[in-house]
Amino acid sequence: MTETKKLYLDGEYVGEYVATGDLEKEREAAIALLREKGLYQVTTPEQAIFRQALSFATTASYLYQRDLTVVPRNGMSVAPFVVNATFALELYLKTLGLLHNTVLRGHDLLSLFDALPPAAHQALFQNFAKSTWQCGITEMVAFRKEIERLRNSFLEWRCLHERNRASEIRFAEMIFVMEVLDITCRAHDKLVTPQRVTPAGIIAESGL
């Protein structure tokens, strides 16, 4: 009997393909099945980097909700929360750059923010009120100040064992910045597309 694997896309069952044990061949079979069902779409660079930003933001959110909103907080989760959240910020900023036809490079959050075109800054400002994390940031000067505070946090908190202290983290402000970036990216025309995007969106029974 031929062994098969089930393929799901966005949580919905698509069909089955032959399990060969060769991951590359199985990937090709999964894509062929999606094409057959009319579900295959090419992932754009903007969609690819946005999805990666979202994956790290989701992990940060999980850690925050599970370990950092309780009393007493689980201090062991602070560093991984900061590392995931700040990497998400970097990817959101680079996503926003691509959405505005600007390729951003490097890892310094402030430099990335300052390199965004004025239209991107305006779009961010217009979405301040849509955030559920109102923390007192109402002007771009304060928004930029928070990014400046976090500019090197990824490296500092990732390598916390190598230093005596790291930069200050303000949970509400960090989450506000991350949510505004997420909302702004999602609202752009280049990302307002059907969510059936592959191969990044393929989730098979085997974890493909």
> Overall 3D geometry?
globular
Name given to the CATH architecture of the largest domain: Up-down Bundle
* Low-confidence runs of at least 5 consecutive residues: 194-208
Give the termini separation.
Answer: 22 Å
- Mean of residue pLDDT values: 87
Radius of gyration from the alpha-carbon trace, in angstroms: 20 Å
Give the CATH level 1 class of the largest domain.
Answer: Mainly Alpha
What does the model show?
With 208 residues, this protein is mainly α. The chain folds into 2 domains: 4-41 and 194-204, no CATH class; 45-187, Up-down Bundle (Four Helix Bundle (Hemerythrin (Met), subunit A)). It has 8 helices and 3 strands, in the order ββααααααααβ. The protein has helices spanning 23-36, 45-68, 78-99, 109-115, 118-126, 140-150, 153-158, 171-187; strands spanning 4-9, 12-18, 202-204. A 3-stranded antiparallel sheet has the order 2-1-3, with helices on one face. Strand 1 and strand 2 form a beta hairpin. Helix 2 (45-68) packs antiparallel against helix 3 and helix 4 (109-115) packs antiparallel against helix 6. The protein is globular, with a radius of gyration of 20 Å. It starts with a strand and ends with a strand. Mean pLDDT is 87; it is low at 194-208.
Key terms for this structure?
208 residues, mainly alpha, Four Helix Bundle (Hemerythrin (Met), subunit A), 2 domains, three-stranded antiparallel sheet, 53% helix, 8% strand, disordered C terminus
